Amino acid sequence: MIEAVRLTKRYGAKTAVDDLSFQVRPGVVTGFLGPNGSGKSTTMRMILGLDRPTSGRVTIGGHPFRELPNAPRQVGALLDARAVHGGRTARSHLLALAQLAGIPARRVDEVLGVVGLQDVARRRSKGFSLGMGQRLGIAAALLGDPQVLLFDEPVNGLDPEGILWVRNLMKALAAEGRTVFVSSHLMSEMALTADHLVVIGRGRLLADMSVREFIATNSAGFARVRTPAGEPEQREKLVAALTGAGGFVLSEPDGALRVTGLPLPRVSDLAHDAGVRLWELSPHQASLEEAYMRMTQTAVDYRSTDDRLAELGPVPEQPPVVPDVPLEGWYAPPPPAPVPVPAPAAPPVPAGAAAAPAASGGPADADRAGGGGPQQSRTHESSTEDAR
Ligand SMILES: Nc1ncnc2c1ncn2[C@@H]1O[C@H](COP(=O)(O)OP(=O)(O)OP(=O)(O)O)[C@@H](O)[C@H]1O
Q: Domain ABC transporter spans what residues (predicted)?
């Protein structure tokens, strides 16, 4: 078992790992998840005695790594797959490691077979692809047949087949009763590989739970509700009604509302009682990736200025401007283009008239086009906006 207790690492003013406590148990794959720069590699380096904690401690089987007897036989790690002497062949690289650790040479050929590099074993590793390099790094980690394994981003650079292979290897190693600790910044990958998750952001612990628990807690259902565009008072009234009834309301990037804590029919009743018209009321399920991004969004060091997720905060006091162009997919498809009803008294329709209502988009245009009642003219208005 790996155990970190109040583990902290500072580099000058930068706190890379901040008061982190967790345990990694044998027999399961534990995913170590966090955005770029969150402190995963630093934590792994401290576990392996390559970095000294500023405070706190981390042990493997009750001992700091440096005090473990015959460490290479007990702990294997893939930290940086590029840290290989490129002039050496895959086999000679592994042989050198095996000799240093007192591991018999036949084990080298065994692990080369396990990772599927037997056919290129005598090729210099500088000609290896990223994926082949990852496989070689994994072979090195497996050399001593250790009970504890650490893998830092092992699927980096692998193709889908390679990713599947790593996933199955991690599971098989854990099923043999080993302690498997694997870092990634991809929730989707960890959901498929890990049984347990340790999630960090800016060096601090955000979650320590089973994947099953993480899914149950974070991928809750929610309702998307949209009030008519250009009527912010309707939106405000609805937010007040929903929060007053115990709902939790978030703003979506397109101006819709995301409501949790209230069943869909209740949302509908509350809107009706508040006299608010709805343009959309639909059930949704938050994806695990989204839940993870929400969890870590305040703990991300580097974010694109174009990151729409940043807008997924709580509803601001001033509702955001609702964009004129609705996002595709949230609306029922527009009805077929209305067919003008021929009226003997009306002047002849000039060529290109079908485009004219789209340019102005007003209900009067819709009516002129023979759209009929208010429902139809409203729908027509939406469809012309969609077309824009
Ligand atoms: N030797 C160092 N000196 C100064 N700062 C460092 C050093 N090593 C890491 N850091 C900083 O500590 C923070 C954590 O880095 P770390 O590499 O542990 O994160 P990570 O989660 O592994 O990120 P990534 O997924 O990008 O590899 C980063 O802000 C990094 O810049």
A: 2-227
